[in-house]
Amino acid sequence: MNFGANVFVRSGSWLRHHRAQLGLTLRVTVAALLSLAFASYLNLTLPLWAVLTALIVTQMSVGRSLNATVDYLVGTLGGAIYGGAIAVFVPHSSEFALLMALALAVAPLALIATMNPSLSAAPITAIIVLLVPTITHATPLASAIDRVLEVALGAITGLLVSFFLLPSTAHRLAIETASRTLRLMAQAVDELIAGLTQNVDVEALRQTQDGIGQALAQLNTIGAEAERERSAHLTGAPNTGPLLRTLLRLRHDLVIVGRAAVVPLPEALQARLKSALTTIAASVGDYLKVCGAALLARRAPPSLVTVDAALNAYAVEVARLRAEGMTRSLPGDVAERFFATRFALEELHQHLQDLDRCVAEWATVQSAR
Q: Does CATH number 3.30.565 belong to domain 170-368?
């Protein structure tokens, strides 16, 4: 009984953790089956291209699917027009002439695709339009029309499936990624500030910073997809730009603290600042974690009172140290790290206030619905 219950709990946890991946798997499968069924019903020449297109345009989010659909259709239409023109106006009855025509069809479109990856379907389409008639004995015009129809069917099918079957919006993915980033930052704050008063694992700090950087890179990509959803009026969610910029600034603050935390501060400074730094680590870490949960739930942000008090207390203690002249005798590198930490924590204070406004904005939109 205990074993069965344990398996059930683990299975439920796994399903929740991989919900987005499982949803995409189902959408891709259904899109492939429907596109093949529709292509067969319409007697399209090559149903394969409808199925492949449906697989390509069915993405993790509606915004990404919309982006892939537009790019693939534009690339296909351009490739079909150009490839058809080459097939009609460039004689290619011999093998050598066909090679020359193929070069003329591929080279310009390949150059365009390298400069604009969204048009990567163009050279593929041109090749198909030029070569398929040599196999099926169809006319170049018929080949071009068939290709556009097959791709259009697959693209529309994939896009509709993305819209209506367990849809996952880029805005939702952006919020989930932002929440995960804030949890990583909460962990980093504790580790980094601890490095100011004790020896820490530098490699562990680097891995934590790298994890934050990877999460922000992913959020940047998802944010672009979310804005495409907004421009298409598919969502009324807020602009993801302010949230992304705020997280980038917070990460920059943590990087500065991390550089200063490679070596602990002198014992005299530790004795005066350790209590204030410990309080900052606890309050800021808790605030970041709760903000991440609030974003997911579209709740109002937690109070900044504790964070304000901790950072203000640190600023007051630093001012006292300077007034007492304790910073004048510090070696150059130690003074640099000390003042860099002070600057980073001041910036952190400002950027946490920006985060508060971002979380409140997302909560306001949810409550208005």
A: no
